[in-house]
Design goal:
The protein is an alpha/beta fold. It folds into 2 domains: about 1-70, no CATH class; about 80-220 and about 260-330, Rossmann fold (3-Layer(aba) Sandwich), CATH 3.40.50.1820. The chain is about 45% helix and about 15% strand. It has an 8-stranded mixed beta sheet, with helices on both faces. Strand 7, helix 5 and strand 8 form a beta-alpha-beta unit. Helix 6 crosses helix 7.
Length: about 325
């Protein structure tokens, strides 16, 4: 009788251990799977391919396409330049900025006959310098030389990766140093949109760049916020996916994305700053914009565009251009 009871107890204990092992295996598989998906998504976000699939609005994708892209990541084509200032009837020169033995930046120099300064211009995520062509035309009409820069990983510059504004801030610093050395003496203004705006803010705060003024459009407050916005666009929950993507992206690129916070960089900006934001922006929230604007330490102005989303903003009509011109004049530029 005692032997039978002992046998039953051992069987129950064995079943219990078996269930625990099974659950442990399930948990391990889930953790590995979730982290694997985050790894692939992070790689897709930071590595461009050639050729890649055409960029389509997420809203236009079917549920199946969204699920596939959620699992494998969006293969982004390397941003290239398909037209030049010559296509707009403007003369320009191509300049190469050597960073090291294997890396360089390409810039388009567009001189103005009677310049009041030089604007060094930077594009957004997954875009080449041609993206800022509309804003460049506005600034040229206002009397500025232009120096349009491709970040590493885009256009005529080297590489095929991006760090969403972290190493791009080094590119900003290199471009400003090149401009000061090549075309002195000139007032230097910086223009950046989206990721380019984040890179400009970081260049000032981290690399000590000292422009005479900056014009920034739609910067995110934290890289984590930008990743969350991207995930929300796919209709997926952001936690813990955003944190995992940021972690694994940092591992892949050797950076710390959790410390990439333009809202903190803004404290270091003491030069005049014109900040533009579209009220229909589905990637950068109003609170992010207001927090960055509040932290800017120098003279500043915020222009809100009521019917515009996440886009180039400086070229959205004569009223915006007039406000920009008035601000620059008031700042003595």
């Amino acid at each position: 009788m005692q032997n039978q009871l002992r046998t039953k107890q051992l069987r129950r204990r064995g079943c219990g251990w078996g269930l625990q092992r099974f659950l442990l295996v399930v948990v391990v598989i889930v953790l590995v799977g979730v982290n694997g998906l985050a790894w692939m998504q992070a790689r897709a976000v930071t590595h461009f391919v050639s050729p890649g699939m055409p960029l389509l609005p997420i809203e236009s994708l079917s549920l199946g396409q969204r699920m596939q892209l959620t699992a494998l990541g969006v293969p982004l084509p390397r941003p290239e330049n398909h037209f030049t200032p010559t296509d707009a009837g403007v003369a320009y020169e191509t300049h190469t900025i050597t960073l090291n033995d294997s890396e360089w930046l390409e810039g388009w120099w567009v001189p103005h006959p009677q310049p009041r300064g030089t604007v060094v211009m930077f594009s957004g995520y997954a875009a080449s310098k041609q993206q800022v062509g509309g804003a460049a035309q506005v600034l040229y009409n206002l009397g500025f030389n232009l120096f349009l820069i491709d970040f590493r990983g885009a256009g005529g510059s080297s590489g095929s990766t991006t760090t969403l504004g972290i190493r791009e801030a080094e590119d900003v610093a290199a471009a400003v140093a090149y401009a000061r050395q090549t075309w002195p003496p000139q007032r230097i203004l910086l223009y950046g949109t989206s990721m380019g705006a984040a890179a400009v803010l970081r260049a000032v705060a981290v690399h000590g760049v000292q422009p005479d003024a900056i014009i920034i459009e739609s910067p995110f407050d934290q890289l984590l916020s930008a990743v969350r916005a991207r995930i929300r666009a796919f209709g997926m929950p952001t936690a813990p996916a955003a944190e995992l993507m940021l972690f694994w992206g940092g591992v892949q690129q050797g950076i710390n994305g959790f410390e990439h916070n333009p809202v903190a960089y803004a404290y270091a900006v003491t030069c005049p700053t014109l900040l533009l934001w579209g009220e229909q922006d589905d990637r950068v929230a109003a609170g992010e914009t207001e927090a960055i604007f509040a932290n800017l330490s120098g003279p500043k102005q915020l222009i809100r565009l009521p019917h515009i989303g996440h886009d180039i903003l400086l070229d959205k009509g004569p009223e915006v251009q007039q406000q920009a011109e008035q601000f620059l004049r008031e700042m003595g530029l």
